[in-house]
Amino acid sequence: MLRQTILLILVSLAWLQGKCRTLYLYCPICIVYAKLSHFVVGAIGGRFCPAGKKICSNEIFTVCYDPKTEDCWGGVVCKLGERACGSTCYNPNEKVCHSGGALCKIGEKGCGRECYDPNDTTKNCIDYGWGDILCGVNQTNCQHGFGEMYCCDKKD
């Protein structure tokens, strides 16, 4: 009976994992799934993944990966030698992940989620308190009410 219950839980988790990952749901049921899958993995001694595979997880998903060919970065599975910037895998010999989430070529600077050449005198990265925005050198940041920031011409 215990084996059947565990099997039913695992099948349900596999189905739910597919739904949460396919629909990119950040909802209470997917959070419950994540917590329950961590519990089940611990309860059955880490046998959630097939032999030779390891668990890669974050607060939402748990997936299996092959440590011989892949790396796990905060729940994102990348090729061996790659790193993750958000949910994107990249080669660290070619690119850099900046704190705002910008994935830039080596030598470029990040501004929010955008990249720019630091020698480009026509660009200006403006820190507006809770993020950065890349504007032209003769622009400043403006805001639509309480919403999105955008670049606008400086007023004389």
Please describe the structure with a list of short key phrases separated by commas or semicolons.
single chain, 156 residues, two-stranded antiparallel sheet, 14 strands, 35% strand
What is this entry, summarized?
Helix content is 24%, strand content 35%. It has 2 helices and 14 strands.
Task: Tell me what you see in this structure.
The chain has 156 residues and is an alpha+beta fold. The chain folds into 2 domains: 2-90, no CATH class; 108-153, no CATH class. Helix content is 24%, strand content 35%. The protein contains 2 helices and 14 strands. The chain has helices at residues 2-23, 28-43; strands at residues 54-57, 62-65, 70-73, 76-79, 83-85, 88-90, 95-97, 103-105, 109-111, 114-116, 123-127, 132-136, 139-143, 149-153. It has a two-stranded antiparallel ribbon. A two-stranded antiparallel ribbon has the order 3-4. Strands 5-6 form a two-stranded antiparallel ribbon. α1 crosses α2. The longest helix has 22 residues, at 2-23. It is elongated. Residues 19-28 and 38-47 have low confidence and may be disordered.
